[in-house]
Amino acid sequence: MVKRELYLKRIRPFYQSEMIKVLTGIRRCGKSTIIQQIIQELRENDVPDNRIIYINFEDYQYRKLCDADLLYEFVKRKIVDNAKHYLLFDEIQNVNQFELVVNSFRATHDVSIFITGSNSKLLSGELATHLGGRTLAFRIMPFTFSEYCSLQSEMQSSKSQKLLLDEYMKWGGFPLVCKEPDESSKEIILSNIYDSVVLKDIIMRNKVASPTMLEKVLYYVIANSSTTVSGNSIAATLTDKIQSVSAPTVYDYLRYIEEACICDKVPRYDIRGKKALAFEEKVYVSDLGFFHLKKNRVKDEYRYLVETICYNELISRGYKVYIGKTHKGEIDFIAERNKEKFYVQAAYLLSDERVIEREFGAYDAIHDHYPKYVITMDRMTLTRNGIIHMNLIDFLLEQNMP
What we know:
Blueprint: H1 5-11, E1 20-24, H2 31-44, E2 52-56, H3 68-78, E3 85-90, H4 98-108, E4 111-117, H5 126-131, E5 135-139, H6 145-154, H7 161-171, H8 175-178, H9 183-206, H10 211-223, E6 227-228, H11 231-238, H12 247-259, E7 263-270, E8 275-285, H13 288-294, H14 301-316, E9 320-325, E10 330-337, E11 340-346, H15 353-361, E12 372-376, E13 388-391, H16 392-397
Parallel strand pairs: 1-4, 1-5, 2-3, 3-4, 7-9, 11-12, 12-13
Antiparallel strand pairs: 6-8, 7-8, 9-10, 10-11
């Protein structure tokens, strides 16, 4: 089992905190595994099993606990004394009014609470109302390339890093997919994950009236990862003589897709004016396997893949990410975390002087002293003028950026 230290090291300082630890991410990205690894670390720190209360709400044996009152009574019976207890609730969005139960235990008992859910909306609405200021959010992603390499090492693979990257860029990082040895099995499992996310986390949860049109919108968004999208342009593209869709409906579907953590919409940020720009978001699919599953191969595909993989890597490392807008053009990513900040340009290859000038020249309009990177698949690096050129593999395996 790959220890997901990338996330554990950020969660670990809050094991004893009364703050609610909220882990969100797309279905089957490994949230349950992280919860199990937290439980293992609690045991290693001499926490007895009777003070660790774990419930997976996708486990049939706990189906009745999806009622808030029954959940409250079940957990309350297990809290036997005044010592600290650890409550770990997996896929808690299946519980009606779960936020009332969580808030009650937080307010009346000495507990440390961890919850997971396959919906980014977990921290909004009623949860925010009842637990405002008392939550810590951790976005969980499918395996990073570094984690994928660790898994392959555990499986005693002798493949080169280049070959592993090729596999990762094709099949993505869902743990269940990564464990399969052959491509036919990978495709079957990946398709099942996709269907499960679409059915459970979009269609059923949002009571979508037209699943066929939703599928078309989702297909469009995945196929256009790393490009600018808008409800109006998607509606115009998908409307024909047989079927039409309105821009407001498309915007609803885009919200559902983002809430299910399938794709992220990333705003542009005016670096000079220091403000976010409305209606100019780019979209990035959260796992490259979906890109392979739903997109026909086209020219410049690898440019989109490299940009998407860099974005997902930054999110996995806990950075907030924006698209940078300058008066001359655009910076692919501004990455911020605590007091850290750096810029990233991502491209497939620096194939000629025009491409070199485009990627390095994008920084001409930025005069601050934060680190600036150009990430490509070139083996030879062309670092110049203080701008660091890195190979994609080196970037993905580097643990100490910037």
